[in-house]
Amino acid sequence: MKRKRKMGKGLDEKRVEQIIEILESEYPNAKTALHFTNPVELLVATVLSAQCTDERVNKVTQDLFRKYRSVEDYARVDLGELEEDIRPTGFFRNKAKAIKSFCNDLVEKFNGKIPGNLEDLVSLSGIGRKTANLVLGEVFGIPGIVVDTHVLRLSRLIGLTKNTDATKVEFDLMEVVPRDQWIRFSNLLILHGRAICIARRPKHGECKIVDLCDEGIRWKKEVGSNS
Known about the structure:
CATH superfamily of the largest domain: Helix-hairpin-Helix base-excision DNA repair enzymes (C-terminal)
CATH architecture of the largest domain: Orthogonal Bundle
Number of helices: 12
Structural class: mainly alpha
Largest sheet: none
CATH class of the largest domain: Mainly Alpha
Low-confidence stretches: 1-7
CATH topology of the largest domain: Endonuclease Iii, domain 2
Shape: elongated
Radius of gyration: 19 Å
Mean pLDDT: 93
Strand content: under 5%
C-alpha cells in the first residue's frame, strides 16, 4: 500500500510540474485580482469578495480604503455606516459584521497589527485558512495554498484529490505541489477556473491542460467515441 501511494504521488508531482509550466504561459502575471496596499485592506477585500466579483470589490474599495485607513477605523465605525459603504458588494450586513468582528479582535489581541502566522490569523473572528493563506502569501511571502471554490473544484477534476473539504484538499495539494509554488499554483488554478474551466460550461476544447486532467481525458474519450 505504501509503495502504491508513493508511485501515485510521484506521478501527480510530475503532472503538477507540467500543469504549472503550461498555465504560467497562459497566465504569466498570475496573482490575486483584489487591489490592496496593506494587510488589513486585503483582509477586508477578501471578505467583500464573497459572492461578488473582484471587479466590483475593487470599485467599492477605491473609496472605502480612502475612508478607512486603519484597523481601528473599522472597529470604531457605526455598523450601519459601514453597511452602507459596502452595500454594492451584496450581503453587506453579514460582511460588515465580519469586518468589525475581526478588526475588534485585531485591536484586542494584536494591538491593531496583522499577525504574520497562520495560527494567529485563523484565531480572528471569521478568518479561515483560505483567507489566512492568501494574506500570508500575498503580504508576507509565506507559502500557502489558497483553496477557494475554483481551486477545490479544479483539483478534484484534475484528479489531485478526492476530498471535498477545503482543508483536506489543501493538505493533499501540499503533498504534490512544490512548496515554493504553493501561492503560484493557487493563483493559476483560480485564473484558469474563471477563464476556461468554468463550472457550468467548461471549455474543454480550449483547455491547454486537457491531457493532464482526469476530467479532460474522460471528455476526449467521449468525444472520440461519439465521432
